[in-house]
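Bug: token stream looks shifted between consecutive jobs. Job 1:
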Amino acid sequence: MMAALPTLLPLAEAARKYGVSEARLKTLIENGKIRAAMIGDEVVVSEEEARSAAVRKEDLPEYKRHAHLKGYRFGLVKRQESIRFPNRLYRVG
């Protein structure tokens, strides 16, 4: 029985399909997280590896930790002494 060949996608198409930037995919390639090949003058990646490497920001622990703040407006101030902390957060919009 023959093993199936992986489906290869051009880097730009894989980035668009899985919602990550080409720069992110290139970083993953450079770090050895996903494999890539050159076909002609185009970089291609395995669709399966690109899919597994493309983590949505909503799935990251850092994002989940602060997800309850979605919809709140935050700002920065120059001087720390001008900060007044209200007793509660106000939802904007």
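Job 2, same session, no restart:
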Amino acid sequence: MTSHQHSRAASQRDEFRRQLHLQRELCREMGALVPPSIDLSTAQCVLDVACGAGGWLLEMARAFPHIQFIGLNTSHEPPHSMRGLAGRPRTDL
């Protein structure tokens, strides 16, 4: 790995951590993954546009296994945390 590639990888890791932190803070401020006024009991699919690090999407997939979750982002490569879900039922990246 060249020094440029190493620096880029480190920068991506830092951005990933920053996004996860912000997603956790947002959920903490809301008091839940989704506002109580949103009823997901009959939902079949949730699309997360600009999913960033994917932290919220992962937590939602764990909390609501009956729902298919799709995350879209401008990144050419999904975050490391999301790669393990690719190809599994009900989760698309």
